[in-house]
Design a protein that fits this description.
The chain is of the alpha/beta class. It has one domain (about 1-150, about 180-215, about 260-275): Rossmann fold, CATH 3.40.50. It is built from nine helices and twelve strands. It binds NADP nicotinamide-adenine-dinucleotide phosphate.
Length: about 290
């Protein structure tokens, strides 16, 4: 069962999980995460062996002015899903975020580092992680960052659109992280599930927990934009100007360091995502392919 069917990750999950079995994918308002009964009824009707929750309140800045809604969807709903998963003996896969950290660490964050979110979105996502951990059962919390893809709301598509409208783009160059394609996240999720569901896989036995899951390498938002605008802008590429975060004030504060070390995932499941540049190439190919068909 996939929650968040038309979200960036949910969309890809439907395609990648199809080979593993029948997938029941649901979307708001069919299931409303602000209503516990809505979640419980959907899970009880489907009785899935695996629940993958990619639904979330992801509007980071808007969350500052809608904290109750963000808390309900990100903080409370995951605990309800975890309870239902545990009741059925199902595996729960849930996604968390680099924004649970304050970004003050030197070097990449590991799963055991203490969270200290700077914004409402990060606080609500952390509450969701903690709610799942408190329920227990068989679960994976996959912590990812800077999600983008060929569809949905994301930095890459926003910048590609702005590049057509403007001659100059000012982009933050002092936040570092790992851009991670929605396709890579879904593919890695499917790989892990294929392993644990295989006859010899032994389920999650002793492997429940948090795992960082990002593409390899790191860059800044400016570096990321430069990498795709130089390849994809097509006509006259706009001038790119690197700016500090202080010159682009937004309602929600962001961590300066969003790097996540994915060693635990690799050691436990043998899953290793590609470098972010390589994943970007694939997404740009998908976009170019789509455009050429129009
Ligand atoms: N995006 C990022 O940069 C990023 C970074 C780190 C971690 N993550 C995490 O990765 C996961 C997937 O993110 P994403 O980028 O794929 O998210 P997304 O594209 O924003 O999709 C989120 C999904 O949740 C659904 N949703 C919103 N409100 C709901 C409600 N009340 N009840 C049920 N469903 C509701 C949305 O439906 P509607 O479209 O109808 O609103 C949408 O399908 C999330 O857990 C997110 O926190 C994302």
């Amino acid at each position: 069962m996939v929650f968040g069917r038309i979200g960036q990750v949910g969309w890809e999950l439907r395609h990648k999980l199809a080979c593993l079995g029948q997938v029941a994918a649901v979307e708001y308002p069919e299931v409303d995460f602000t209503k516990a009964d809505s979640i419980r009824n959907a899970v009880r009707a489907a009785e899935p062996s695996v629940i993958v929750n990619s639904a979330a309140y992801t509007a980071v800045d808007k969350a500052e002015s809608e904290p109750e809604l963000a808390w309900a969807i990100n903080g409370t709903a995951p605990g309800v899903i975890a309870e239902e998963a545990k009741r059925l003996g199902s595996i729960l896969v849930h996604y968390s975020t680099d924004y649970v950290f304050d970004g003050s660490k030197q070097g990449a964050y590991v799963e055991t580092d203490a969270p200290n979110p700077l914004n409402v979105y990060g606080k609500t996502k952390l509450a969701g992680d903690e709610a799942i951990q408190a329920v227990g059962g068989d679960y994976l919390i996959l912590r990812t960052s800077w999600v983008y893809g060929a569809r949905g709301n994301n930095f890459l598509l926003t910048m590609l659109r702005l590049a057509k409208e403007r001659t100059e783009l000012r982009i933050v160059d002092d936040q570092t992280g790992g851009p991670t394609s929605s396709e890579c996240i879904a593919e890695a999720t499917a790989d892990i599930l294929a392993q644990v569901l295989s006859p010899a896989g032994g389920g999650l036995a002793g492997r429940s927990g948090i795992y960082n899951l990002t593409c390899r390498g790191e860059t800044t938002w400016f570096g990321f934009a430069k990498a795709f605008l130089s390849k994809a802008a097509g006509t006259a590429a706009p001038e790119l100007i690197a700016i500090p975060t202080s010159e682009f004030p937004r309602p929600a504060q962001r961590p300066a360091n969003s790097r996540l070390l994915c060693q635990r995932l690799e050691e436990t499941f043998g899953v290793r995502l590609p470098d972010w540049e390589e994943a970007l190439e694939l997404v740009l190919e998908t976009l170019a392919e789509g455009a050429s068909r129009l």
